[in-house]
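Let us begin with a simple case.
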Amino acid sequence: MIDNKELEQKTNDLINLSKEAYFDLQEQYNFNIIRTVSDNIKALSLEDWKKADALESAVLDTLHVAYNEGNPAGQVARKACDLHRQWLSLLWGKENYNRDAHRKLAEIYLNDPIQKEYFNKIGSSVAEFFNLALINYCNEEENIRIASMLESMGDYESRIGQIEAAEAHYEQAMELYQLEENNLGLAKVFHSLGDLESRLGQVDEAVRHYVQAGEIFQAEHDNISLANVLRSMGDLKYRYGQVEIAQRYYSHAEELYRIEKSTGLADVLQSLGELDIRLGLIDTAKEHFGKAEKLFRTQNDNVGLAKVLFNIGNLESREKETDQSRDHYAQAAELYCSEQDNLGLANVLLRMGDQESKLQHYELAINYQKNSYLLYDAENDYAGKSYAMGALCRNYALNGQVEEAKHWIKTTQENLDNIPTQVRPYVNGCIRDALGVLGINYESI
């Protein structure tokens, strides 16, 4: 048991130590920080002090092992530093902890004779070793924080179509994660790069990054992240017509989501429903979409709900239930607009144009498809943009708008090098149809 006199002495010692750690940082963090930290130490309960003592003992025990191991940047040294962070967070208050003060303590432990003697009881140069370990730990934490911020910036830029900026920030994040040997962070960037490359039609690059991400997540036993990658792989394979391979990826992802009871289950059920339509399994598709819709509504996930409503509309369009499909498309478009998801909205508009074209409402079809083209173009989605260009070639021709049809045929042909390989058969088919309707060959344009 700690008696009152001993507790008072410990409180004063720790307050003085904390004042020294924060003294040079007052202006940076706010002038009340020393008082706030001191008040937090004074307010600790006996139970808090017991936890602090247990953490302090754990720090010393782990530090002893790390010191004998001899690597201040090793895993055991990191564990000692993290236990020390937990100890400080308890004493100072979690909201008052910061790495700069922690780094300052590393200097104090090395330069203050009393602190140095305290740590050197473990070994002749433990204070020096702990100083190096804490500096490394605090710098590592800062690097990982910066890497995470860069990754988030890349995600945002990818979403709004700033491709070069996104790639640059992903590259910077990767360098920091590699420097700190943070495999999970690195895998997340690989996954994000794969998603970006999939959008750009860079299939081989996307697959390579998905595989790299999946291997790391599997090695780290991160089932949910692995399932997310498998779902992305399934989406990529499905988009380019490799249905059986996509089904295997989706099924594996579904299994992992169910094991982990993850919200990602709704997404993969939806993907399986899309695949069922391609395979002609209409009843199974309806079942998958129904389950997904229910989960999305429960989770208040508007983007997921928009996608499943869009897919239900596709199913109804296939079955010539035109009014119902229009209603579901409209609901999906409204949700995508509210969530500012331009790619989702572009997908809906493109499909609405396809439906109206089949009904020979060519002018309405062209309006939808032109808007989808503009959205895809703004988002740098080359696959979607290519589908829209092909559809416009055909529908302008079918609507008797000869000059407009010629313009889009020429524009599409001029951009052929940028059209993803897997989309070219569809685009070439649209151009052939348009030329056939116009009764001309390409050379005459």
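The second case is a distinct protein. As before, the sequence precedes its structure tokens.
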Amino acid sequence: MRDSTLDSYRQFRAARPRRCNAGESCRRPILGAPADRSKRLLATEVLVCNTAARTNIRDQAFHQLASVMQMGRREGMHTMDSQLLTLYEAGEITYDTALTHANDAKHFRALVEKGRQDSSSVEA
């Protein structure tokens, strides 16, 4: 089992682009500036290597991995944008910091707006 996991990882490392091109999203942990500036926070993306992830990696369909992470919440996966939203809603980071580090700023704004609408409907 361990050898097949390592082989899958090695294949993923060999197949993925080495660096990001202009306009392309780089997936990496971000140390964000918290709202109170007295500490640093880590926001991450988690991809569990399930069947869907393996298939997309094997087929070099890296652009579909974000969808796999969104669908894999029950398995512990999450995207950078969802992690930033969680930190923002908890008051740990500012909106500007979250928006700066979001992979898709337009999608992140939509998530924040949806959260505001959901909270206002609960209060009503």
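The longest helix spans residues 105-123. Helices lie at 2-15, 51-58, 65-71, 80-89, 95-101, 105-123.
Keep these points in mind for the review questions at the end of the chapter.
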